[in-house]
Amino acid sequence: MEQSIIELATCPICWELFANPKALPCCLHGFCLQCIEGLLRNKSPGDTAPCPVCRRDFQIPSVGVDGLEHHYILQLFVERASHFMRERSCAEHELELTIYCHDCKEIICEV
């Protein structure tokens, strides 16, 4: 269950927990604000762009990517995933588990 929540709280671009998750209006896929800004750095407000996951086109808001709606559901997953990660520590290194390894599907420490 914890691993599923962590996977849902992970940005498909940077593979980290979402930071300021934004929802695309065409499909509701979510991305970190910084990640989607990086992908769309060559686009202007009003331009269309494809979703990086499903390729459906959406229009960049007139105020820019920051104008995309905050993805409150993903934010809840991030808060829960952060809680899971904080409440565990690495037995070998005595460090907080802070990273989710997608290959191993485990929460690991930085070492």
Which features would summarize this protein structure in a list?
Herpes Virus-1, 3 helices, two-stranded antiparallel ribbon, 111 residues, alpha+beta
What does this structure look like?
It is a single chain. The chain is α+β, with helices and mostly antiparallel strands and 111 residues long. It has one domain: Zinc/RING finger domain, C3HC4 (zinc finger) (Herpes Virus-1), CATH 3.30.40. The strands form three sheets. The chain has a two-stranded antiparallel ribbon with strand order 1-2. The protein has a two-stranded antiparallel sheet with strand order 3-4. A two-stranded antiparallel sheet has the order 5-6. Helix 1 packs across helix 3. The relative contact order is 0.20. The model has no long low-confidence stretch (mean pLDDT 88).
Give the ordered list of helices and strands: HEEHEEHEE
Pairing-aware structural class of the strands and helices? Answer: alpha+beta
CATH T-level topology:
Herpes Virus-1
As a percent range, the share of helical residues equals 25-40%
Q: In which order are the strands of the major sheet placed?
A: 1-2
Q: Tell me the β content.
A: 15-25%
- The overall average pLDDT, rounded, is 88
What is the class in the CATH system? Alpha Beta
